[in-house]
Amino acid sequence: MKSFFPHLLPVFRECVNSRVYKIPGYYELYFIYNQYESGLNGYLRFSLQFRPVTFIFNVKPMVRHDGLYHCYESYSEKTVIHISLISVNKTHMKQKAEKIRLKDIARETHYSLSTVAKVLSGSAEETRISPETTSKIMSAAQRLGYVPNLMARKLRSKRSGLAGIYLSYATDPICAGILTAILMELPKRGFSPILTVEETDIRECRDIWLRNRIEGLILCGPPDKVYPGLCVELHKHTIPCVTAGNISRFPTDLPELPGVRINNRMGIELSVNHLIGLGRKRIAFITGPNLHNDAVERQTAYVDIIKKYHPTIIIDISSENQYWQRGYLSTQLLLEKHGNIDAIIAYDDMVAMGAIKALTERNISIPGDIAVIGFDNQPLAKYSIPSLTTIDQPVDEIGIRAVHILDDILKKKHHSTPHHIYLDPTLIPRTSTLG
Question: CA–CA separation, 342 vs 330, rounded Å?
C-alpha cells in the first residue's frame, strides 16, 4: 500500500471539499472531508477510504459516528482496502497512526529531549525549569495530541504514579470541597487518583489499593469504618497515609497520622469573642457526633473559653444524628432546660440551621432574642434565613496541603514538613448575629 502514497500527495494538497478523485491507473480515492483546526500549526484531520475502482460510493448526508463523518455506502464483492485517520500538515503529510512521542515535541519546541521529559513527567519545578519553558512544552504536547505511555513510565521509574483517596461522607459539602482540591492538585504532583468511597467495604478498598500498587493514601473526611491496624498494614507495603480534614476518634492509630486540619480551638474562640463583643451573656453550645475528633475539640474549646464568662451550657442529645435533625432536636431540648440563653454556637452549619428552624417555629427572633453561629461556612450558610454567621474552613488549602505532605513523604522530605498542620479559620459575620 505504501507504493500508492506518491499518487495521493497531489490529491491531499488540492482537496477542499467532499468529492471523488481519479488516480492514474486502476484505483479511485473516495474522500470524505472532515477538517478542524487543532492548533497554530493548522493540522487538518481526514477520514479517507482508498478502494478498488469497482467500488460504488453513494454520496449522501454525512452521519457523525465515533468522532468521524461517514456516508451510507454500497460496494462490490471485491476486497476493500481502508486507509483511515490521516493527518495532513499545511507543509507536510504525516500518518496519524504514528503516535506522538517525546522527540516529536522536542522537535516542535526546539528544547532537548531531557527537558521535555522532565516537564511532561511533572518534574519541572523540582528540576528548576522556568514556567515559560514549561508552558511552551505543555502547549505543544496538547496541540500535538500527546498521550503519555503510563505503563512505560511506571516500568522505567518503578512507580505506579497512583494515589489512593478514601472519601467518607460524600454528601458533606466540606468533604466534597476538600476532595475537589485533592483531585485538582494530585496531577500537578505527578499522581493519578484512585477514588474509593465509604459505601464500599473497607477491605475491598484495601484490596483495590494493593492491587493497583498505590504509592500513598489520603483519608478525606472522618473515616469511621477504617478498622484498627489498617494503616499499619498499609505501612508494611510502604504505603503512607495522610488525613485531610476532620478525622475519627477511633481507631486510636488514626490521630497519629500526618495530615491537615482546621484549628478548632481558634474557631470557637472567634465565635465566643464575636458574641461577647455583641453583648451576649448566656452562650450555649450544641455538640456534634462523638465519633468525630472535630466535635470533641470544639466542645473542649468551648468549655475552656466560656468559663471565663459564665458556666457552660451544653446540649448533647447522646445520638449520632447529624445535620439539621441534630440541631433541631437539640434546640428544642435546650429551650426546655435553659430558657434564658441569648446565643447558640453549633457544632457545624447544618446543626445551626436545624437550630434556626426550631427557634423560628417558636417565634423566637434571630438574632433579636437568640443569636446563632455555625462552623464550616458551607455553601448553604449564606442563603439560610437569616443568613448564618459562621467560621470558614479553607477547604481548598486543606486538600492542597494534604497532597503536598504525601508527596514530601514519598520524596523523603517529611523531615522538613510538619506531620500535623493546623490551618487558621476566619469568622464570617452575617445576619444571624448582626441582624
Answer: 15
Question: What is the C-alpha radius of gyration for the chain, rounded to an integer number of angstroms?
Answer: 31
Residue 390, burial from CB neighbour count under 10 angstroms (0-12, 13-18, 19+): buried
Q: pLDDT, tens digit, for every residue of 169-196?
A: 777 888 889 999 999 999 988 888 999 8
Which residue do the cell numbers 479517507 mark?
A: 48
Phi-psi map region of 271: left, alpha, beta (phi>0 left; psi -120 to 50 alpha): alpha
φ and ψ of 119, to 5 deg? -65, -45
Contacts of 277 (CB under 8 A, 6+ apart): none
SS3 391: strand
Output the pLDDT for position 123: 78
**CA–CA distance, 217 with 93 (Å, rounded to integer):** 46
Express each pLDDT in 114-126 by its tens digit.
999 888 877 788 8
> Which pLDDT score is estimated for 6?
43
DSSP state letter for 416: G
Q: Number of H helices and number of E strands within the chain?
A: 14, 19
Contact 394, 260 (CB under 8 A): no
Strand order in the sheet with 371-373: 314-315, 283-286, 343-346, 371-373
Q: 3-state class of 4 per DSSP?
A: helix
